[in-house]
Amino acid sequence: MLIRGLSASTLLIYNIAVLITLIFLLRRYKSNQIAIFIIILFWGGLFADMGKMVQNIYKIAVVIFAIHLPYKYYFKNEIKAVRPLWIALGAFVVFVVCVNLIVHRESPLLVFSQMYKYVVPAALFPILLHVCKHTINAYRLNRLFGEILVIQIALNVVKLVFVGGWYEGLVGSITGVAGGGAGTTLPLLGLCWFALNTNMNINNKKSIFFLIGFLFIGWMAGKRAVWLLFPILFFLLGIFVSKTISMKRILPLLLLLPLFLYLGLRFSPTLNPEKKIWGSFDPVYAWNYTMEYSAGKKDVTGDREVGAGRIGANTLLFQTFFYSGDNLSTFSRLIGLGIGHVFAPNYEDYSNRDYYLGISTRGALTGFGMFLMAFGAVGLILFILYLLRLTHYANSRNIRYIFGGVILFDFVFYNSTIVQDPALMVFMMFLIAYSNKTYNKYGEFRDITYLYKHLICK
To answer: From 35, 173, 251, 287, which residue has the greatest number of CB atoms within 10 Å?
Structure first.
């Protein structure tokens, strides 16, 4: 019996490994409810593979846990600080819930199951802000995320051994067999975590392990984009966050950038003419493939196919909702077509251009496209305002811009895995909160590990 191309025995063995790591971390942090909640979020893939009923029970438990924590750990100053963020998200949630229940007549279960993904991380944010104000607690929570990242890398080694090669699903413990978008975004968030802990100094084996490990996660999920986005983010973090401009700093960055690109084109079967691992290095072929995949093939006149690829889909939807929109009423452009239209379509509509307003397939929809089509221009604008407000909590301007760029790039040009997966959104929120401990508003780095080990613990 095959489950999305995998044998049941292979999936069972992999999930046993995932379960073992879950038990290990839960025992290690059994007295810390905040840590337990974060661990459970990151092991959502295990429950997803147990079936729809178990997954729904898991989601309900997560919501209850998320509501319980702010009451148990009530921090007045942090609650006050995040009030503008909660108001921004609340405006979006109220708008979406009212429109979908009253106008679109959507199932309440469907509506609230979508909203939980956005509400749960926001409920935890004031706790993360409070924890990261105190060096000891910030260090311990940061160590937890480091251990989670190491386990994600290790689980991908398990996947390589038992699956035998790259597979889009099973991205560590985060996703089950369905869903591999985290294979691109987790390495990017991991790199941001690396920057906050090292100031982008690559001076030991542990640093090399993490960098290779993050790329390995992307490669095992078959993600091409990570080979381009990872070096770009690597360079931006090294230059604009560390603020140490010297040949000693710049030279490794300049040497690693072409190395990442070279390895990416040779390791990704779709980016080389031979379509195999370790194929030839052909940048022209890789560029042409990328453009056809992202924006559609050119016709005889040189124009690219309308509505094909993520760039083509974004362009078409932007024109439809904000300019022409002849096939949509003004009301529909404002409030969207409903959650069910985008997040719960029939399988046979996957490649139905009429259903998706001229877009070639559902796979071409980015977060921008999904939100615009489901929630309309009003819903999209409200959610973007929420994301922009979130980045404001980083004191360092450069970190604010770079972290905001990561979130918005994933949202506008990819499938919005960060905002759609509570575990990744909580990780992003932790990075924003933790950045205020490791960098002051002037961008000066403070080594929290050194402070903890050499000053506090003496």
So the answer is: 173
Q: How many CA atoms lie within 13 A of 281 on its CB side?
A: 7
Q: How far is CA 211 from CA 216, 222, 231, 251, 262, in A?
A: 9, 17, 10, 17, 16
Tell me, yes or no, whether 55 lies in a domain: yes
Range of the domain at 140: 2-271+373-456
Inside any domain, residue 147 = yes
- Residue partners of 299: CB distance under 8 A and separation at least 6: 305
Number of independent structural domains in the chain: 1
Both structure tokens of 74: 């009530």
Residue closest to 358 by CA, chosen among 388, 313, 396: 313
Please report whether residue 57 resides in a domain: yes
Render each residue's pLDDT in the chain as its tens digit; 458 residues: 667 788 889 999 999 999 999 999 999 999 899 999 999 999 999 999 998 889 889 988 998 888 888 777 767 888 899 999 999 999 999 999 999 999 999 999 899 989 989 999 999 999 999 999 888 889 999 999 999 999 999 999 999 999 988 888 899 999 998 878 899 999 999 999 999 998 888 777 888 899 999 999 999 998 888 888 998 899 888 887 766 556 666 776 777 778 888 888 888 888 888 888 888 888 888 888 888 877 777 765 666 677 778 888 898 898 888 887 667 888 999 999 999 999 888 878 888 888 888 888 888 899 999 999 999 999 999 999 999 999 999 998 999 999 999 999 999 998 899 999 999 999 999 999 999 998 877 777 877 665 555 544 44
> Model's pTM, two decimal places?
0.92
